[in-house]
Records
---
Amino acid sequence: MSAHAKPVATQASPLLQVEGLSTWFPIKKGVFRKTVGHVRAVDGVDLTIEAGKTLALVGESGCGKTTVGRSILRLIPARAGRVLFEGTDLLALARDELHPYRRKLQIVFQDPMASLNPRLRVREIVSEGMRSFGIGASDAERGERVAALLERVKLDPRHMTRYPHEFSGGQRQRICIARALAVEPELLICDEAVSALDVSIQAQILNLLRDIQQELGLAYLFITHDLGVVRYLADRVAVMYLGRVVEHGDTEALMAAPQHPYTQALLAAVPTIDPTGARRVVPVLGDVPSPANPPAGCHFHTRCPKVFDRCRAETPPLYPVAHGDSRCFLSDPAR
């Protein structure tokens, strides 16, 4: 282990702690591809996930939430920050030191067809990670484990000789979940894992993920733009806007009394039955600014219906509120 990656965990430490994570992408122009700026996809994000719990990371498309998940796994390089898993900073590990942690952190992508090798049978897909990490003494033993995993995700083990194209979208996502579970992870990152599925299939996959969590004690980072699934699965919620977390806290309390105007607008836009007609939608004005040129001050001020002068000049910190934290000057106790 490199000198910068020594465990710093205490008994009370969370499973995963993200501190000041920033991931910027260079903007290159001209014949010589000179860097002329950066897209600030993730700009100083802090997250905490307890063992066996679910944190939902929510926000509009393009807010940086998928980049957070991939930066945690080092599928893309981070610019700054720390990702502490069981006290070890994953960003400070050399490539060979990172290998054992690949087993502990797995990901389920949005598009199951794109993440499955069409040339491999299901048995080969699910057992690939086992071979990489030396799980199972023989191919026969790994085959037995594949059969058990397929049963766990509610698929017929007899279909392990089929190819991905022979399954429906929901079945392919179950295969992806089985593949992730094959290496016995402790944290599963679900990146829009149900957004490409029909509503009825979404419910089945969410039920499956909940049952697996209760059975195995897995922790989830559930990345989604759909607040409708958050209350069902998540213990805590972090709301992202333009690369920053603007509010986070306990799921039920946050949804009952959101403090940040952006969170209020997201929740107000969720379709719901209101026979009284008393429900009022808080408007979100204008378009999302470019992360290559974010606004000064509060990033949300150009669209906020409650903006005032301080928002345009200063960047708000995360203020403590009843359910967690809110990055809004309206939550400033000294205001």
---
Amino acid sequence: MTETKPSVLFVCVHNAGRSQMAAGFLRDIAGDRIEVRSAGSMPADQINPTAVAAMAELGIDITAEQPKVLTTEAVQASDVVITMGCGDACPFFPGKRYEDWKLDDPAGQGIDAVRPIRDDIQARIQQLVSELV
């Protein structure tokens, strides 16, 4: 990698569950070695409380996060853009690394349904960190 630290943008529709869990894991695992952003094409009013609870089980606090609207600037400023079910709403810029993670949406799900989604995201983040740092 270059002298500057890589940046990753996680995008899902509401920026309330999957992308927030992914951002929380990346901050926890990579520390300050990777810049972390998350956004949604249609942000919710608040983070999914079940996603917050699932992350808290692993000692990761995402309660202070707020859903943010996806901007062209956020995509342009990121080296890696990881989408999670937002489809064509995500802007595309040549030269960026794009990944689409097929993950179930935790919205409206109970904690037992959210844990496997969380664990899948954690494994993907560990792989991503090993590739970027």
---
Amino acid sequence: MLSKAKIKEIRALEMKKNRDESGLFIAEGNKLVADMLKVFDCEWLVASASWMATQGDINARELILAEGGDIGKASLLKTPQDVLAVFRKPQYSLDEANPSQRLILALDGIQDPGNLGTIVRLADWFGITDVVCSADTADIFGPKAIQASMGAPAHVKVHYTDLNDYIKNHCVSNVYGTFLYGENIYDANLSQNGIIIMGNEGNGIRPEIEALITKRLFIHPYPSGRDTVESLNVATATAIVLAEFRRPQN
């Protein structure tokens, strides 16, 4: 049975301050939790008997068999599933995010957790192993971001740092950013190493980061000259950009 203390702990982890202090985060959903159990340390897990029966050995410090509406009482989802788990946040070294060896995706002030989770999911799909975020980017271990990521943080390392210092310290020649005025991305010669920067939903890339960009890219609308919406959602733009970087170059 899920105790009131456990439910209180789950509710507390909705807040970033409590996630930072405890080093814990929550994940819900049958496939999401199963994927994360393979990678992250699980402090405790509550699930239905039917879900547990399909998993074999479950690597969690504490297992709680859900009774009645236990999961519904604790869940942060509108439609609770069969399992909820509390995991320990991983610790990564920023040295692993080396743009001289491969492409790094950098996020400058992404605020919406859904956008962030979707972007990390896209990074996973397109083989980006490290995402470097400014300190004011949303928390990938927040409940909404984790749900939107569909388990991608099990494969993608998400780092938080001073983005300005990170770019300056690596001195790479290929620092890409997307703008309304730049080289048509469909015609550009794109490298397989360097930094791709995606900016804030409303304000784009901040000026001090823009000053470090060496290659400005533009996602050209089709056909040329037609009136269109002013801009793309940042997650949608990221999908297009990453797809172009992974397209074989002529």
